């Protein structure tokens, strides 16, 4: 039996992405978001949604660039903090002891200790409502050599990242493979 | 030591969302996507990215509506199939035996057997490149009463959904809570 619920932003799973940017004085800032995703393959793009009230909003608008650093679970507390404090009042890198690294490709910093980083050049801005959606072209990727898989790409099990469940407000682990993609569905092919 | 990689669409985790729509003859169609996410809180919106070549693209453009049905892992093979076959050539509901249910709120069908459904009215279309991004306002949510949690919202552990890792091309389980959100980071607050 299906129940009807009021509209709400409870679709899942959501990513935990730490968005890096510089402010107008080149102070590095980082903010955790759960509302984003890959949005195009050619050019490769990812999107993040932010409220205008956030400090990161103005930073991205000014520098036309941002990074997305993906935390492993050992940095869960730091990522959680990045989503609560505002760069307007505090230097979040200094507060956590993590290292802002200047991207060589875009005008934005990333978190040096996090295992996988996407460097994005802003190519679209879409005002939706309370949130503005930034679309960034992925112009480079950095990955710690310790999380690389045999195929030359980051191995999510080694990255040990996590997801956010906005219904329970818990961070959830991402577990073991359940099946290979583009295979189990073949049994419905005629 | 960080390695530099070529731009690619390997940010993670990605959702497994089954996008329901009607074609011009009111045939229900459904397509699995991994590129999407929540993108605004007021109004509550979610975005999905599709290639113009997909059958769903034309369906959404015509009806200005779509649904997102979230599969539990018991329907992994069906969801996998929905991402491989095209509604141009086949009735995917008939092929899998799943039930298209007409939304009462938007001009699109959803998958009757899946535990959580979002009903969306198209409010923005953004051409990015190979992919077009559709932004849909969530005007209603349906959830199976068997997956409801104590807070009156779907419980992700009961839904037993999964995620897709585009580096390994595996579907991955979403596991147990690791920490409560907006709490562990408090230790960095001064």
List keywords for this structure.
homodimer; three-stranded antiparallel β-sheet; mainly beta; 190 residues; 4 helices
Number of strands of chain A: 13
Bin the strand percentage of chain A. Answer: 35-45%
Q: What is the radius of gyration of chain A? A: 17 Å
The poorly predicted ranges of chain A are none
Residues in helices of chain A, as a percent range: 10-25%
Biggest interface reads:
A-B, 108 and 108 residues
Termini separation of chain A comes to: 32 Å
Q: What is the H/E order of chain A?
A: EEEEEEHEHHEEEEHEE
Q: Main β-sheet of chain A: number of strands, strand sense, barrel status? A: 7 strands, antiparallel
Give the count of helical stretches of chain A.
4
Alpha-beta content class of chain A: mainly beta
Q: What shape does the CA trace of chain A take?
A: globular
The overall pLDDT of chain A, averaged over residues, is 95
Q: How would you write the strand order of the largest sheet of chain A?
A: 4-3-7-10-11-6-5
Oligomer description: homodimer
How are the elements arranged and paired?
The structure is a homodimer of 190-residue chains.
Chain A: E1 2-5, E2 14-15, E3 17-22, E4 28-33, E5 36-40, E6 45-51, H1 55-63, E7 65-70, H2 76-82, H3 92-96, E8 100-102, E9 109-111, E10 116-127, E11 131-144, H4 156-159, E12 162-165, E13 170-180
Antiparallel strand pairs in A: 2-12, 3-4, 3-7, 5-6, 6-11, 7-10, 8-9, 10-11, 12-13
